[in-house]
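Message: Just now I want nothing more than another pair of eyes on a protein record. I am handing you a single protein, as its sequence and its fold in token form. As I understand it, each token names a local backbone shape. Take your time, and here it is.
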Amino acid sequence: MAAAAAAAGGGPQPPQPELPAPGLALDKAATAAHLKAALSRPDNRAGAEELQALLERVLSAERPLAAAADSEEAAAAGGGGGPGAAEEEALEWCKCLLAGGGGYDEFCAAVRAYDPAALCGLVWTANFVAYRCRTCGISPCMSLCAECFHQGDHTGHDFNMFRSQAGGACDCGDSNVMRESGFCKRHQIKSSSNIPCVPKDLLMMSEFVLPRFIFCLIQYLREGYNEPAADVPSEKDLNKVLQLLEPQISFLEDLTKMGGAMRSVLTQVLTNQQNYKDLTSGLGENSCAKKSHEKYLIALKSSGLTYPEDKLVYGIQEPSAGTSTLAVQGFAGATGTLGQLDSSDEEDQDGSQGLGKRKRVKLSSSTKDQSIMDVLKHKSFLEELLFWTIKYEFPQKMVTFLLNMLPDQEYKVAFTKTFVQHYAFIMKTLKKSHESDTMSNRIVHISVQLFSNEELARQVTEECQLLDIMVTVLLYMMESCLIKSELQDEENSLHVVVNCGEALLKNNTYWPLVSDFINILSHQSVAKRFLEDHGLLVTWMNFVSFFQGMNLNKRELNEHVEFESQTYYAAFAAELEACAQPMWGLLSHCKVRETQEYTKNVVRYCIEALQDWFDAINFVDEPAPNQVTFHLPLHRYYAMFLSKAVKCQELDLDSVLPDQEMLMKLMIHPLQIQASLAEIHSNMWVRNGLQIKGQAMTYVQSHFCNSMIDPDIYLLQVCASRLDPDYFISSVFERFKVVDLLTMASQHQNTVLDAEHERSMLEGALTFLVILLSLRLHLGMSDDEILRAEMVAQLCMNDRTHSSLLDLIPENPNPKSGIIPGSYSFESVLSAVADFKAPVFEPGGSMQQGMYTPKAEVWDQEFDPVMVILRTVYRRDVQSAMDRYTAFLKQSGKFPGNPWPPYKKRTPLHPSYKGLMRLLHCKTLHIVLFTLLYKILMDHQNLSEHVLCMVLYLIELGLENSADEESDEEASVCGPERCHDSWFPGSNLVSNMRHFINYVRVRVPETAPEVKRDSSASTSSDSLSSLHNSGTAQVFSLVAERRKKFQEIINRSNSEANQVVRPKTSSKWSAPGSALQLTTAILEIKESILSLLIKLHHKLSGKQNSYYPPWLDDLEILIQPEIPKYSHGDGITAVERILLKAALQSRMNKRIIEEICRKVTPPVPPKKITAAEKKTLDKEERRQKARERQQKLLAEFASRQKSFMETAMDVDSPENDIPMEIATAEPQVSEAVYDCVICGQSGPSSEDRPTGLVVLLQASSVLGQCRDNVEPKKLPISEEEQIYPWDTCAAVHDVRLSLLQRYFKDSSCLLAVSIGWEGGVYVQTCGHTLHIDCHKSYMESLRNDQVLQGFSVDKGEFTCPLCRQFANSVLPCYPGNNVENNLWQRPSNKSIQDLIKEVEELQGRPGAFPSETNLSKEMESVMKDIKNTTQKKYRDYSKTPGSPDNDFLFMYSVARTNLELELIHRGGNLCSGGASTAGKRSCLNQLFLVLALHMRLYSIDSEYNPWSKLTQLVEEMNSQLGNEEQPEVPILYHDVTSLLLIQILMMPQPLRKDHFTCIVKVLFTLLYTQALAALSIKCNEEDRSAWKQTGALKKNTCDAEKSYEVLLSFVISELSKGKLYHEEGTQECAMVSPIAWSPESMEKYLQDFCLPFLRITSLLQHHLFGEDLPSCQEEEEFSVLSSCLGLLPTFYQTEHPFISASCLDWPVPAFDIISQWCSEINSFTERHAEQGKALLIQESRWKLPHLLQLPENYNTIFQYYHRKTCSVCTKVPKDPAVCLVCGTFVCLKGLCCKQQSYCECVLHSQNCGAGTGIFLLINASVIIIIRGHRFCLWGSVYLDAHGEEDRDLRRGKPLYICKERYKVLEQQWISHTFDHINKRWGPHYNGL
């Protein structure tokens, strides 16, 4: 390391005469030994002085760093070693001296032996993979390094893996942070006892040398630091200095790793104050030291810090116990200095934002706490080192060194105190930093290690005023960005709030400080001190009030806002982190009765702060219109501490509540937010842009709701329970601006709301009341009940995955609360309310995750629409929950129609909040309910079913919560005295329900219909006076009502009596500025709530007299009221349920209901229908019928379209597809007819207008991955396991071809094999056809289409216009004449000899390419496409580049590839038979015609044509064979399947069936001979001679040519003439199988050898002639296929066991031709016996291809690969990936491994899969597919215990292989359907 640094340094080396001659290591060692000896003497003064002098010389800081930094050029030009060399020298000296003359390494080892390793303490930096176990952790921040985690036992624990964000340290062995049971094996032993004592002389030198060394380091730091100029950030200079110091700091870091003994020496050195004073005071005569001290003082000063010595008067008295060292003056004092900007370092920041509009505000604070901010005095090396660490913005190396020392307990305490002492300075540096993110992470990296430890936190709180410092620092930090609040009273407001647009808030710069504060508040001892300290609480409330009312929204009424500010997120984050989380931290310590005092303190100061706030914004009783802020942290503190007081501390609520007036003020702003939410959802804020919706959503979103909306609603509930209910209800309707709507008149005029918003605002107001009255979150529910309700609400909206549930359920934000996500109660509640649906796999569909869905009984009993409404972020979720509920009811047969939200029983109220129910029993609410029921019945505008639903809900709530003691009699007695405007007699809903209201006086616009009616009424006999006597209800004005109450409460002096009498003036009150003149009218009503309900029942059911009291038939109902029949249903059910409850509650109600039902008046009198009306009615009816007919037709059309789409779109299950009409048209049609999917015309394909099939051509190496083993290979997960690709099909074929090319003529070799095992071209089609000219214009239009497609039109890619399947070419259909085809198939009775001759002649005819037609052009172009599909290296195998043989080989290999792949898709055999799935969509027929046309252009010279060798006996030709020319490939070495394809493609198309059979018969003889030859090699010598004898005896029998024994013996005897069998001996034994060959096993061997050929041939026959494949058992596959191919004579008997030889049909005498074939081999084996043998044994039994087998647990893959180095660049890749086909490890996106602009994954996908790559991304657990130039994320095959993916390993839970998914992946790979099934493709530009 030192050497590297030396090279990095630069500058000339200053002369240093006094340095000892460098390089003399011996001298150094000797000197060191001498000094050590001198120092060991009892009188060591001389030695010490000598050492000092030496160190002074060696570590001289005279070399100015500045010079070094400036003259790097000199060094670069090769000048000297630079100062780096000298420093290296100095380091060498130090090492020598420490070792005291011995070797440094031995010294290290010696020190390590004394290490009491009780703690791990491994320090890591960002991005390190660590673990956290919640089961073992005491502190929530606990973390373990991977090694300790795996060494410990955490089975069954709740742990997860995570990537460290800020860095951290391993806590293993630290019992303060984690339980000992979780320690790993190394740190379990308390090892201090048995470690021997450190010998004195071992570390003696260190104690002398290290102080000097550290001082030298500090001098360097001082020298190198230059104050950054005002404008230029000086990151660069600082980094230069740090680079130069790298070796020194690394040296210190290495020392810390030597273990405990060395650490304690370092601690001594770092904390020793005397040493520090002696060395750094700068007083000595040494000028250098003086200069360095000056620089230090300058640095202090420029940081805005003073060195205490400079202050004349400096004394801070020790704080006496109980008081705080701080007192920040209240706002009153602060107002004087508003607007001043005092400190200098603010001004440079302020330049940009001081744009006049928002002037920054500074608060002056008392001078007392200045000392916290501005004074630093360093007394030890440690303190100054930390100072420079901060100054240099926390360089990683320094941080790691400081943290590495932490296992030393003494150091830990000293360091923590030092850190606290520098806390204010850290904040200042952080605020100025340009890299605040990095710096924040490093700060937290340190602080989390210090403050997570409760003991330590308590100690520094007591000794260093940690809390005071933190709160002060936070206050200071926020003070730098305050602005004047514009809430309420814009001009005179004295309140200041933080400006959310400032970088400090926007970039979350305050995060480290807040996070530390939350961390220390989680310790009980610290939190208690905080809650006891009144001064601190006051300061903290001041801090919180900076956030009260921030980010104010003003509703835009005219223009749309130009610029949508996004500051709201900063505001929400700030309130959550800086206010709410500390609040939850404090609340977690207020759980028991003994902590009552704390709550009282908080509540007291909270109310004071709120009072100050109301005063500062000049708030009286009306909020300013069109303003809303979502941020009321003071209200929320108050609410949550109240809730805690009642729930846990048994405090009396009234003892902590303020007076009525304060409660009225308190409710205003939270209520304003609720009303604004309704306004936002009613689109009244639409001109403020989308961000306002964002705020409304964030306010209720799961991470915020229990710190925002829940406390607000709770506070409103508290206010409602204590204030006058009439006042509260009227306030609500006034805030929601719907007061004017609540009139009996059919028309009204709303002065504050547009008509289109009225309905949704009314719904909002009623919904809010329902929530307010039925929510019990803080009013008596236990934690488990809350959790259950939350969970049910989320599950009812949608099925959820486990992780999204964890995320959506608002956990108690304080980590120590006990309801940790994933805790016991979470899992048990989840299993109680939900069923797990395992992940489903629809092939081709999306990958489902494991989901939880509500149990049936949850829908039945627990579905709570109120909770759902409260928790939905998107309104559509409420609808979704209702839809799911409806579906449940239909499915379970409980209710068929459209149900209403069910009414749910509530948890009983906590006694403290009983007052809340008075809202339901107040006249104001009853008047509103009555009015709304009446309006709904009369069909007034702007009312909806939702309104009715909520009205009924409120009535039902009232009936459920009625005061029981009030009996009917009482109610009737207390009549007129308490009469309230003759609306209702009392306030109990039960009795008010039956109260009839006769007349109502309403104020209506003059245009209203009521006005006319009124005039007629007054002239009638009913005079107005009589109306008055019957008690007309007066106009009821909610607003007046509310104002009156408010006045009453304010003027308490009035007597109680006054409250009843209403001041008449207020009743006339109407909104000022109303446009229309209002007039008064009197309506005749004559209804009660009960009668309205009954009429409503009639209206809803659409029948007269539909309601019949159920108790008249069945008295039981009244006794046992909980009837399931009423629990689910629609409005009718709800009305019935309410009437039943009303009857139950009072006998009078029951009687009245019965009466009403008897004399029910139809709501609308029936009219006589006139003839004219009848006509219109008939017309209507006719129209209705026509409409229905039309609907029916449309529906039918839609369903047809749908079924078509299904068949067309279905990629994966072709079974239900329409078979392609290619070669399957009926015989009577003369030509095949094709439909063009673009122009829609049908017709045959012709020469000038050819039709083509939509095809996708892709290169494939799937075949090459076949192995001869059924078990797939395993993915390597350790260094030992490696995968070698020698045994793959591709490798074997490659070896064979190169072997042939070595010894035989090249052109002949290229006919003897097939290629395309790797990079073969696979052609697939969706089966749709189009005209080729239509296709061209389609491509043109795609090219001009600007929309981004997932494919590249320039590469010819497109999607099928009909089914949208991906394609890239068109395969022309040859104009075929089907009748002719059928003629060819008639069997002819020609002999095989005639047929052979015909075949030979036909092949001999040269194939001329058809004339230049459109068709021929297309044929050429598609051939070009096929060639270009694969890379050149997969096409050119010839030694002479560009030879025609190459093309010839390539073309027939394309046919081979497609046949072989189809065979694999059928499962590797043809047992299933039938026209398989692949067959229906196959385009092999068309492909064959194209290939044949091209192949016939190349004629094979007749002498080379293998056909003649197969069918004729040739005279000896050896004479012609010149020695220099290489021989042809012997026919027995040819690949028979390749020969088949060559023979067939050389014939003119279409082929005749009998020619085809003839070719197959001939080739089968060759194949059989090959099988015999291979078998003969497999036998050993004895077997061979035995077979030779037995066969020879039978040679002359009649069917000797069809007996394998005879033939085998003949082959053996022929081959024995050569040297084939000679080289037996040694290595041969390996191949010979030990088993003895029985006739059965030989027969099996021969059949297995021939089967692959028979399968391919049968497939070919199936495609060429359209014959179906028979299905069969596996055992009989051979016989069935051979008879299907016509090899078996028809008269063949099946009794005796089947013999493969019976299929033989020799064209020429068998023995002659065999001997001719064998002689070729013998002449070759003369020279090359080994190779001759290898070529004869062809491995043809390939098993199906597989992807690698993956381990069960993902962690095994992750742990091995995420640290593995790349073999190319030997670095650990940032994004490692592994190929699932061959196991190669690659760098994803790694620039290190880029070759010619291709990154490694893309390159590998071309080499391994010919353009298809399947990679597992190690760090993300996701699979990525590369296909050509596109890629897509496929998903993950590893799921957690809940069936979910964990992309990017964010949750870090253990993952397990999902076999089904992996199967799907493998299936898509084998069937080449990635392009069709995966939808999200994008180009990768070779960058993966």
The mean pLDDT is 78.
